[in-house]
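TatD family hydrolase
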Amino acid sequence: MLIDSHCHLDRIDLSPYNNQLSQALEAARERGVQQFLCIGISLENLKSVVSIAQSHQDVWASVGVHPLDVSNGLASYEELVEWASQEKVVAIGETGLDYYYSKETNLIQQESFVVHLQAAKEAGLPVVVHTRDAREDTINLIKQHGSEASAGVLHCFTEDWDMAKKALDLNYYISISGIVTFRNAGALRDVVKKIPLDRLLVETDSPYLAPVPYRGKSNEPKFVREVAEYIAQLQGVSFETLANITTENFYRLFHKSAASQ
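Tokens:
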């Protein structure tokens, strides 16, 4: 069985499913996907994300403000801790740093990231981290303000092995998306081969970054199977082994979801 550890269910294309999220989730379940983590990215979509999780037994939610959304409003420490107390919320984020697109908001991003790390520490929940072109600052802020006890995950990882190793040393997990299947992702594939199996997660990041052979199409949770099958080949294990281990990893990291199993 598989878990899509990072998807934006409030944004996926539902037109093939009569505009019914329940049908899209059922299509994923038919391919062995047993859980979904629906990611909050802004103050505007937190209610929607939590509502989706509350409406589906096998969907969980995270709450946070994406680094590219910080100019639209920041979440306070108190707000994040309050959101984290809700039953279906199992993580803080998506938060982190993205210097590739928005260098002018670097300082605001850092401020927001620190608040998320501190709130996660208070709530005892893991952090879902987005990082791009901000390797040193991401690791340093995690060291200074994060918690190794609950730690978190670097999602949709595309950085180098040096950063991955530093994150692993801080008790973080590494999540891999469909990017690993792209023709030009050779460097990432080399990194994935080195990541310990017990620290790997798989995700779609849907509706973005559909894996080969669906690249260019709208992504959806059922395609996490292609991601997992590809990573299994890179790691030299069977698909069943990869699926079982990444599922165990998910429940270990997002421990609040495991408590209800």
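Residues 2-258 form a domain with the TIM Barrel fold (CATH 3.20.20.140).
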